[in-house]
Amino acid sequence: MHVNVESVTNPDPQIQKRLILAIDLAYHAGQKTLEWFSNPLLEVRHKSDRSPVTVADEMAESFVRQALLSAFPSDGFLGEESGSVEGTSGFDWIVDPIDGTKSFIRGVPLYSTLVGCRHNDCGVIGVIAIAALDEMVYASFGAGAWHVVGSSTPIKACVSSRRVLSESLFCTTDPTSFGKTSRRGVRDALESACLLSRSWGDGYGYLLVATGRAEVMADPLMNRWDAAAVEVVVREAGGTFTDWKGIESIDSGEGLATNGLVLEETLLLTRG
């Protein structure tokens, strides 16, 4: 995949130069993960919360972190694996090198590299790179979202036009997480209300909403590094990213993306 920088535009020069680098780093970090994808020698360790981590996660995040802080030393940084660095510029990077490590370690290609950037705590850049599918969506504040597959020319990413849940596809990362948060009833209600439901999750599910292939993506458990990039991508594609009460936030510990047209109908179920 090669994204021509001439096709990457944002009227704000500070956002523009960061967007170009974010796209490049998300792509190349994803390529680094492929060196370990489906590798029988990959060692899987578990963190204190029992979530898996591998050398691929750490290597990809280290690569992105070093490059970002070298290019923008006054920016802040938060990574899932390496923690945070305080910045002074007002720009803060939030990175998940492998969003969907559980898929990655089992050889399932639906994992992503997420690179997000916020300015004064407002999302301004988001990149979702699906290395194993050679697919990416990138977005920046006020400049829309763009979808690239392989070496094709980027095309405008846009949410679907379906207006009711009865015609919609509902996705989630881990169906069992609804039970873990005492929200199994919400999952049942969404599955009943929607035409289709699939556990195509993590960043890939949000990419599906942004490209019009799904209408609802709901996660009852979500970290800041899971949410920062996808919030910008979905919003700039014409959709919504909120918590389950409809509040626009990446810090609620939960996430809900929709095409906007089914948001209110969805919130009737998630708020309950």
Description:
By secondary structure, this protein is an alpha+beta fold. It has two domains: 5-156, Fructose-1,6-Bisphosphatase, Chain A, domain 1 (2-Layer Sandwich); 165-270, 3-Layer(aba) Sandwich (D-Maltodextrin-Binding Protein, domain 2), CATH 3.40.190. The chain is 33% helix and 26% strand. The protein has eight helices and 15 strands. The strands form three sheets. It has an eight-stranded mixed sheet, sandwiched between helices. The longest helix is centred in the first third of the chain and has 22 residues, at 13-34.
Q: Largest sheet at a glance?
A: 8 strands, mixed
Name the average pLDDT: 96
**CATH-defined topology of the largest domain:** Fructose-1,6-Bisphosphatase, Chain A, domain 1
Beta-strand content bin: 25-35%
- What's the total count of β strands? 15
Short structural description:
This protein has eight helices and 15 strands. With 272 residues, the chain is an alpha+beta fold. The longest helix has 22 residues.
